Amino acid sequence: MLKPYLVFRCHKCRNFTNAPAGQKRRRCSYCGHIIDITKAACALFDTPEQASDAVKEYNASRGGDAFHKVVEASKDRVKALLPSEKLSTKDVVDKSEDDLPSGKTQRLLKLLEKEASESDCSLDRIAEICPEYQLDWQWVEDQLNKLSNSGILIFPRPWTVKLVDSPTEKTVKAPIVDVTKDIVLRIEELGGEARVDDVIEYLKQMGVSQESVETSLDRLMTQGVVYVPKTGIIGLV
Ligand SMILES: [Zn+2]
């Protein structure tokens, strides 16, 4: 038998959308807001097709009576289908806090790496375990959208998330370091003049990013330590 579907409205953008009964949260396809289905008025439909037809109809007519009638009629069944809120006085205190990183974002990434890197993880599950990571859902919800905007995670389904890549690789950019001294030394070694590309290549081999070399070259230029005798060539003054 097919699972019944709920149709409800995003309270942020007022658009209608749906989710299988039992799901507590979904991401609004229109505005990205994560909707708390348990707090929304829901209309119940027996199949996903009926639900998606209703979504189209309600969005076209902006809801109105048709929606409220179904909400009224399905009230009791909806209530029975929604997962009851657990008495969540889970004891978080004896959980070893030593394993947890101190930064909130780091803790969230840790949670996601554990739960949502191999396969997708439901928003419900994340909301359920975020206290274990000393995170509150309100904050997590915001972050999930931000992470999604920066391409670190995706919503494979409106009610699940999955990490795209290791977030540490994506977010940690090589720091820009000052290599002015190394540049001057290298140019000296080469007899007082060098090709910019050669200097970049040389320092790259030492693990210095091109950005660092360029920033340092700019600095040397401003300080009047080096000059450009010809395009692509750098010389010591
Ligand atoms: Zn919305």
Give a written overview of the molecule.
The chain has about 240 residues and is an alpha+beta fold. It has 3 domains: about 80 residues, no CATH class; about 70 residues, Winged helix-like DNA-binding domain superfamily/Winged helix DNA-binding domain (Arc Repressor Mutant, subunit A, Orthogonal Bundle), CATH 1.10.10.10; about 55 residues, Winged helix-like DNA-binding domain superfamily/Winged helix DNA-binding domain (Arc Repressor Mutant, subunit A), CATH 1.10.10. The chain is about 45% helix and about 15% strand. A 3-stranded antiparallel β-sheet has the order 2-1-5. A hairpin with a 6-residue loop joins strand 1 and strand 2. It is elongated. The protein starts with a strand and ends with a strand. About 5% of the residues have low confidence. The site of zinc ion has 8 residues, from loops.
